[in-house]
Amino acid sequence: MIENKLTGQIIGAAIEVHKILGPGLLESAYKECLFYKLVKLGLFTEKEKPMPVIFEEIKLDCGYRIDLLVENRIVVELKCVENLNDVHMAQTLTYMKLGNYKLGLLINFNVIKLKDGVKRIINGSLSPINESL
Q1: Which CB contacts under 8 angstroms, 24+ apart, belong to 79-85?
Q2: What is the DSSP letter of 116?
Q3: What are the C-alpha distances in Å from 36 to residues 18, 23, 42, 80, 110?
Q4: pLDDT tens track for 12-40
Q5: Of the N and C termini of the chain, which has fewer Cβ atoms inside 10 Å?
Q6: Are 118 and 133 in contact (CB under 8 A)?
Q7: Residues 103-127, mean pLDDT to the nearest whole number
Q8: CA dist., res. 38 & res. 67, Å (int)
Q9: Global pTM?
Q10: What's the rounded Cα separation, in Å, for the pair 123 and 39?
Q11: CA distance 5 to 133
């Protein structure tokens, strides 16, 4: 499935960025570096993609932005926090719902091993990440 290959490429690029930079920087630094790596891999990637809220019959631009949207199908939400919590998951799920995206990655760069900071979300549910990461 193409989504599995794409998430593998995204997570692989994130691991490369994390190995070079390590934890402790601002989210914006990781976002720029991951964006660069994904574009370099030839993946169509949008940074800070506007995400309007549709309420009844009106479309509201409330300033919501997806950190990275890869190949117009995978929401990538980046964090640099001590621990991921339910609010971070809810934010990712909301972006997925608003954009009608079925797959999302929530990545926390403020960890020793990046695999411990990656959550894969499919259709609103957590999905296991390959243990070989």
Answers
A1: 79/27, 79/106, 79/107, 79/108, 79/109, 79/110, 79/117, 80/23, 80/24, 80/25, 80/26, 80/27, 80/30, 80/108, 80/109, 80/110, 81/108, 81/110, 82/110, 83/108, 84/108, 84/117, 84/119
A2: G
A3: 13, 18, 10, 18, 19
A4: 999 999 999 999 999 999 999 999 999 99
A5: N
A6: yes
A7: 91
A8: 13
A9: 0.90
A10: 26
A11: 14
DSSP state of 72: T
Provide the residue type at 56 as one letter. E
CA pair distance 59, 43, nearest whole angstrom = 29
- Counting residues of the chain whose pLDDT is more than 70, the rounded percentage is 92
The two structure tokens encoding residue 109: 């760069």
Q: Which residues contact 78 (CB under 8 A, 6 or more apart)?
A: 27, 30, 31, 34, 67, 68, 107, 108, 109
End-to-end, the C-alpha distance of the chain in Å comes to 19
